[in-house]
Structures
1.
Amino acid sequence: MHTNDTLAVHAQGLVKTFGDQRAVDGIDLEVRRGEVFGVLGPNGAGKTTTLKMLATLLPIDGGRAEVFGHDVSREGHVIRQLLGVTGQYASVDENLTATENLLLFGRLQGLSRPESKRRAATLLEQFDLTEAANKPISAFSGGMRRRLDLAASLITRPPLIFLDEPTTGLDPRTRGQMWDTIRELVDEGCTVLLTTQYLDEADQLADRIAVIDRGVKVAEGTSDELKSSVGRSSLTVHLAERDDLVLAAATARGLVGEEPVPSPEARRLSVPLERSEQAVDVLVALREKGIGIESLTVQKPSLDEVFLALTGHTADSDTDDSASMEAAS
Amino acid sequence: MSTLTTTPPGDATQRVTVDTGVLDRRLATHVSLGQTVAQTMTLAWRATMKMRRNFEQLFDVTIQPLLFTAMFAYIFGGAISGSVKDYLPVIIPGLIGQTVLTACIATGVQLREDMDKGVFDRFKVLPIARIAPLAGPMVADLVRYAIASTLTFGTGIAMGYRPGGGVLGVFGAILLAIVTGWSLAWIFTWFGTVGKTAQGVQGISLMVMFPLTFLSNAFVPTATMPGWLRAFADVNPVSHVISAIRELANHGQVTAEVGWAVLGCAVVVAIFAPLSVRSFNRKM
Ligand SMILES: Nc1ncnc2c1ncn2[C@@H]1O[C@H](COP(=O)(O)OP(=O)(O)OP(=O)(O)O)[C@@H](O)[C@H]1O
Ligand SMILES: [Mg+2]
């Protein structure tokens, strides 16, 4: 493989087998420097396994991978100096306080004591953990643990960061904070490779997304590309008067060129959208016709729809069913 | 967008430069000996912090020696040596051997527990010597062996034991006990690296620890044992360690037993250290 200067991660045909199960079955990844790359997939898709192979945590069974041009299989020690890894489960020391954890990881990576202390204080501040700095980790909430875990990966300012499901189990506010933090990292020049089960998260954060399912990459592209390839948003309006339904449907059809789906009992009309902006056009037109609206929602295609479209099966069904895996491959 | 320069093979460091300013550092291709020592000491610090926070982890080297010393001396003293006071010079070194061995078991069990914890996943992905997470706790455990042997001597002295070897003899005995603890800990560390669960490690460790301590001269002179048992007790390295401790503490003499004890320890380390390191590396 020829070294590509613009790639932070370059994987070709990655394979991992557990017994006779091919958990990762020939995945190619190209993560450019300075971007956020999202790996999207349901439970058991092989996200963690892929990340672990790239992080030198699992031997690569087939194919090859380079990180900043260094071979992952042969130059493990060099790779580990370039990486910050935040795994799916918190990997901090329960017996130490937040500060002590950061000092431990700083010292282990060769920072001097004063330097480690300075870095620890900065990171605790940045991650809003200053107040909990001297509390034992056992007293931390899940979100605090997650933030400390990320902080621990950043002590030596690694240029490449792997985040395995960074927001799973976080409440919406904490999730938003985590997203902001990840964006800041990118502003500072980091490259981020993250996995997620949420289309929404990939949408918010990732410049490019690879969708994997059962160890195979089924799609890749920007979030817009994926969504337009996969399914469409829809606008649902609740009308004030049931009598307006026919007129509203005709108006919407004229704008989007497709038949809206009415449900008269609920005075509800569901309008398929080619592009999300069309929602505004529809609403303006309804207002001009004097049709009253009680409430409305715009729905993006859900992860389930994405999976249905890309793989022919839904995200959460039969992922552990080896019989259907045989059939799919 | 970015530049990447790699020095020719053979050079220990390489330079990778990225225009973002985040990465402009020297990358080593291996861990130096100095770094390995520094990382081991950092992980030893972590282990001592853990000991301080979980005081019950120190029970086997604090409460147990206190209890056992009093118990064994009062129960067996009259029967074996005629009086408690006469038994003390026999039993105190014996108990030191026993408590240090018990303390070793914890080394293996705790390593196993540690390896199952999340923080070990981070150790695996840090650019550190693969051996440091194993060596760190072993360094910290020297403190445990020191506490165990000092406390046992202290309890004995409080009960009327007057070591004939004086301060120097006792000091030598404690030192030998620490060396022994560290050496024999490799056996249990190896169990820790191959065992599937901490409980399993504990079980097999006890199965090894009991014959090693009780089939020795720790509590009774081997002369009273049947021939086959005596044959084992006499070659048991624990017997040699205990004899050496007795001679150091009671007579202030460095005899051939000290040599045998050190040799026995060296053999144990020579066998079990490579085994442990190999199976640990496989899991790191
Ligand atoms: N150590 C292992 N031994 C055996 N099978 C494994 C092992 N690790 C993972 N697998 C299997 O490999 C497949 C992929 O697992 P992986 O953890 O990579 O999925 P994932 O995409 O990270 O899922 P999740 O969203 O649940 O974290 C799963 O079917 C899993 O059962
Ligand atoms: Mg996972």
2.
Amino acid sequence: MRKTALNCVYDLAKQDERIVFIGSDLGPGVLGAMKSEIPERFFMEGISEQHVIGMSAGLAMEGFIPYVNTIATFLTRRCYEQIALDLCLQDLPVRLIASGGGVVYAPLGPTHLAVEDIAIMRALPNMTVVAPCDADEMSRLMAQTLDWPHPIYIRLGKGGDAIVSREEHGFEIGKAILLQEPGAGLFVTTGVMTQLALQAVDLLKEEGLTCGVLHIHTVKPLDHVALSHWLPKVKGVVTVEEHTRIGGLGSAILEFCNDQMPGQAAKIARIGIPDHFAEQYGSQNSLLAHWGITVETLCNVMRKQLQNA
Amino acid sequence: MDQRSKQLRKLIVRGLEGGGRGHIGSSMSLVEIMRVLFDSYLRFRPSDATWPDRDRLILSKGHGCLALYAILADKGFFDPEELDSFCKFNARLGGHPELGKVPGVEASTGALGHGLPMAVGMALAAKIKKQSHRIVVIMGDGEINEGTVWEAAMSASKHQLTNLIAMVDYNKLQSYGATKEVLDLEPLADKWRAFGFEVVEVDGHDMSALENLVARLPLNAQKPTAVICHTIKGKGIPFAEGKAEWHHKSGLSSDDISALYECLL
Ligand SMILES: Cc1ncc(C[n+]2csc(CCOP(=O)(O)OP(=O)(O)O)c2C)c(N)n1
């Protein structure tokens, strides 16, 4: 996903002189072709994330469209005020490409996990928050980032994630994609949790429970139209995200319900990361399993939602 | 390189083998710095890791933690066998060091640029409480790109923290490549001097130079001390020395591990 995203930046930069790339201190050779072909619009600034955000704001104020890439948690936690004021308050078209969203960097411990990034980015006015589910969807998203007039936070998964998005669904920022028609139940997911939900749908189908998957690649702005349409049609809803249960996709949907269709909230259960720092290392999958973010749990929670309905 | 330096590097390789990954170059450049601190400078009690009068060492470049784990194991804070669990699910020894998990680790680091501010707080606390222990913080050269380092440096000078020793592992490389190209730090000694530190430069792999230096600390009765250690990233592993590609490796095979051990015979 990261490779795809960065290659898209290079492709866009070839076509459009407003595009600049800024990395902090990435791996050796990153975007080497862009650096040698368009050195005047390729920057590796050093381990100075806060400065990088301010610098991207300055470039954007003068008409450039900066694409900034570094590790998700350093981009969000560390630069929060710069993002809030330099980018969001001034509403500038800067794109933040956040590597390792969620617990991709599990072996590196809690300093390297981005588990509240969606919550804190979503809380900022003017910010757009997108978490594509696979590399194909990433390239469809990147094509649309060019003319979006606001800052965008783009959350990347591990890479090598199974391709489940489909060309025919297209891609529009802010428009959810129904990957699987619901029967009684609906999983509402973002990022690579969409893959997990699709697996759960297959398992549940074997027991005669038909469930759908609504893939919310854009957590903000949230697709109210899709939610208003689908939530009342199903008996149970399970939201799934690789993110703390506080403030992410599940919370966004509950907020929407509370504001616009309070009767729907009761059918919603949220799956996400519990409210404490990771205490183990291992791998992304072992951490997710430890927290019960597995196909089995998705099935169990959905069964329970449907029983209660 | 003498046997003790090789032995400590072998412990690092043991951790790399256990985790199948790790920051190789970043850890190898720290070995002699850790060695001189733990052999000849810091006061500590391995069986009583939180002894109140101990000196505090913060590894601010937390990604170099295998070098810290190696010396802590060597000193008996935990069994060297524990290095086999590096980065594993239930391990105490993670890819970055965490306070409260690993005996001898004084602060959770991993996000760069946090060590010096915490060290300033600790040094100030010791001063207020009239305690005589010392605070040592080790930073990477890339790490000191971060503004927080320089904010803390001004504060250390303001508070005349003579009990604070700030060390820079100046291996001339950061993640992307040469510090000179990514963000040149020079003139580095002058920078620390301008920020109010007494500065000394040393070959960070020369044990006798390091021994002489720590015997003279602190260098100034009014100022905090900065020690710029000239080092080689990947030191001791000829094929990794000075190579940005060896900053971090994952998916290390048993052949890779054997090749690393072979360098340390
Ligand atoms: C705030 C922050 N930004 C980025 C990183 C990712 N990162 C880990 S190590 C590293 C390079 C560190 O270079 P240096 O301080 O010179 O240490 P070396 O490994 O060269 O000894 C980077 C960018 C991080 N850990 N923390």
